[in-house]
Amino acid sequence: CAHDDGGGCLACWEAVRLMKALNLRPKRTVRLVLFTNEENGTAGGRAYAQAHGNEKHTLAIEADGGVGAPLGFGLTVKSNGGFAQAKAWERLGTGPISEGGGGADIGPLGEKGVPLAGLKNDMSLYWNIHHTHADTFDKIDKGDLNACVGALAVFAYAASETDALG
């Protein structure tokens, strides 16, 4: 399915490729993990958290709302200082950062204390085609997809440069 979850996977993959193409050298490793089909029990997210949840993670980001125009990010952190630190990224082009973010696939990492973020999108088309045969790549606006790639790249790079969000 293009919007659920193909577009989000593609946007995340392209965000990492963009950082590499721009020769950015993140302070911390940016790890891309592609989860799909969380509707069947979040097996991938749970398995990843079991295998890697005790490793140091600065942030886990999920993009599971399609690839409509990006509207910013939701962020779940334990400390107000971490949220304030991330709010400063807005000036870099992330879009507005609001409290409360994450997603089903990265939820198991959140249970282990990892801060969580989720890309927010214009979902006006998403719910019309969600889980239907109409959820095909011809429904993806290339400009919106590219804007999602840029927002994710900026957000992931900013997170990689951060010591801890808490």
Count of discrete alpha- or pi-helical segments spanning 4 or more residues: 6
Mean pLDDT: 93
According to DSSP, the number of beta strands is 4
Q: What helical percentage do the residues reach?
A: 25-40%
Portion in beta strands: 5-15%
Report, as a whole number of angstroms, the end-to-end distance: 34 Å
Which structural class matches the secondary elements?
Answer: alpha/beta
Q: List low-pLDDT spans.
A: none
Give, in order, the helices and strands. Answer: HHEEHEHEHH
Describe the structure.
- The protein has 6 helices and 4 strands.
- By secondary structure, it is an alpha/beta fold.
- A 4-stranded mixed beta sheet has the order 1-4-2-3.
- The N and C termini lie far apart (34 Å).
- The model has no long low-confidence stretch (mean pLDDT 93).
